Amino acid sequence: MKKVLASLAMAVGLVVVAISNAWATDIKEITIGYFQEWPTANMVAMLDKTYDKEMGVKLNWRSFGNGNEMSAAMASGNLQIAFSQGLVPFVVAVSKGLKIKMVSVAVSYAEADNCVVSKKSGITQANAKELEGKKVGTSIGNVTHYKLLRMLKHLGVDANKVDIVQMNATDAAVAFARGDITMGCGWGGGLLRMLKTGNLLMTAAEQEALGIRVFDVVSVTDDFLNKHPDLVQKFIDVTDNANAAYAADPASAMPKIAKASGMDLADAKQIIAMFTFPSKKDLASKAWFGGTIQKFTKQVAEFFVAQKQMDKALKDYGPTITDRFVK
Question: What value does the CA radius of gyration of the chain take, rounded to a whole number of Å?
């Protein structure tokens, strides 16, 4: 398991290339990465093509299985903006030298990303050490993986003795239903499906008490940001307006959000109810880009180094984060 995250990081590192000439000044279309079964408020603007109208370019929305895949696509020059990329994949990528910047926070959540243990296993927090020797599915190098490791450490479980295997949320849900894994960690629709036959190892409230913050970021390649800061600003502004519109009238927005996320209405409502979409005003505060997010990013990196999941952390993650678009 230790080698998997290192391999993911190496894959990103190997494809970090000079992409400064990838886009001409008169750009006509860009590619945005996002997740299916992850219903976010901006999906109304996505479906209505508000982004295209306001930015004056065509947006190609491409779905990914996890945030590390987004990093690889950005490294190869095939993706300019990653929407709702997990903090951990971002940390792994920039720690290996990928030239991207965190420009905003897409969504803050705790309940919508978790680990579910099989009811048949009889495993709870009280006997969590029984997970040693068992198979656990999670998206490695993701925030889900980070939460898993933090929980195992808190519960006195030796993560090196747990058979942690790479699985995206949808795959983990399938493996969990078949009984191939004792515990599955995931998000969105995959999490909901696992909860039908399993129990949470720890609640979100219990995790937050340990200091585990969970949020996804909006990241942009340095090349695109430097050449088209106006488009980045418009993307953030349209997203902020979409978040405000959803907050004012969620019922009207939900049918489009459900459609864009590939979920039925009931499931989409259940997941989005666990989300918070910080406004630009919120993000400009000390609680986010005013200093806290930089410190937390460093803490996450140092935790992965301590767990021997990363070789080393950057001395300062401040240069990989900018608040210019949320001010």
Answer: 19
Positive or negative, the CA dihedral 97, 5, 169, 201 is: negative
Chain centroid to CA 73: 15
Burial class (CB in 10 A: 0-12, 13-18, 19+), 254: buried
Hey, what's the torsion of the CAs at 30, 253, 113, 192, to 10 degrees? -120
Same domain, 242 and 308: yes
The tens digit of pLDDT for each residue in 189-202 reads 999 999 999 999 99
Q: Residue 90: which of 276, 293, 260, 267 has the closest Cα?
A: 293
Per the domain annotation, does 326 fall within a domain? no
269-326 residue pLDDT tens? 999 999 999 999 999 999 899 999 999 999 999 999 998 889 999 999 999 999 999 9
Rounded to whole angstroms, how far apart are CA atoms 192 and 169?
10
Write out the residue range of the structural domain in which residue 184 sits: 113-209
Rounded to two decimals, what is the model's pTM?
0.85
| CATH number of the domain within which 182 lies | 3.40.190.10
Q: Which residues pair with 30 in a beta bridge?
A: 59
Residue range 2-47, pLDDT digits in tens? 445 555 555 555 554 434 334 445 799 999 999 999 999 999 999 9
Domain count, the chain: 2
